[in-house]
Amino acid sequence: MSDPSIPSKVGAQWKPAHAYAMAVVCLAVGLALGYLFRGSESPYAPALPSIGTATAAATASTGMGGMPTLEQMKQMADKKAEPFLEKLKADPDNPALLNQVGTLYKATHQFKAAAAYYERALQADPKNVAVRADLASCLYYEGDIDGAISQLQQALKYDPKDANSLFNLGMIKWHGKKDAGGAVAAWQQLLKSNPKLADDKKVEVQKLIAQAKRHSGLNNSAEP
């Protein structure tokens, strides 16, 4: 199941509209990175808008129907980020605050800005695999496929069983690298290392494994 909207060349220079359009397509078909598992938001952090909430708010603020523009979403993200940015002036290396700002920008498709804050958060807390997985998602949407894979591999060095990193690694290998075998291997490792995974999520991963095998001609007898 190849996706022509995902770049095949590492470091491809996308226009912002291309990344935005690709993210919307991924959301529409249920393939957004990290959406099967919990992202990096702290359970103690103030509620941050989801992409759906963000787009709805931006649409309402303009009084126009349809999807808001990237500029409209950026303006909303900038406004929402103001209280966090104010706190960062006094505590610029606070990983929780940096992560919150990154998540705000990620939710509104400002992936380059989000990645910058996630990178700063990781400088202060390099072993935070959830933040590293979110950074990988942003790099992927920006067209840096190898960079995204590198971040996920680093996350798995810290936590080889991290379900979110393994899930995203499979998605990027399949859709970004056209490597169905690598995707299947990542997802099989996910299921093997997370035997207590919720049934609904296990079913979703198994479906992806079956699809990747079917489209690549891999032997389905190897199904875990």
Description:
- Helices cover 65% and strands 0% of the residues.
- With 224 residues, the protein is mainly α.
- It has one domain (66-222): Serine Threonine Protein Phosphatase 5, Tetratricopeptide repeat.
- α4 (95-107) runs antiparallel to α5.
- It is globular, with a radius of gyration of 18 Å.
Level-2 CATH architecture: Alpha Horseshoe
For the CA atoms, what is the radius of gyration?
18 Å
CATH superfamily, called what?
Answer: Tetratricopeptide repeat domain
Output the CATH topology. Serine Threonine Protein Phosphatase 5, Tetratricopeptide repeat
Number of helices, where a helix is a run of at least 4 consecutive DSSP H or I residues: 10
Helix-strand layout with pairing:
Elements: H1 16-28, H2 51-62, H3 70-90, H4 95-107, H5 111-124, H6 129-141, H7 145-158, H8 163-175, H9 180-193, H10 199-216
Short description:
This protein is mostly helical and 224 residues long. It is built from 10 helices and no strands.
Quickly list its features.
224 residues; mainly alpha; 65% helix
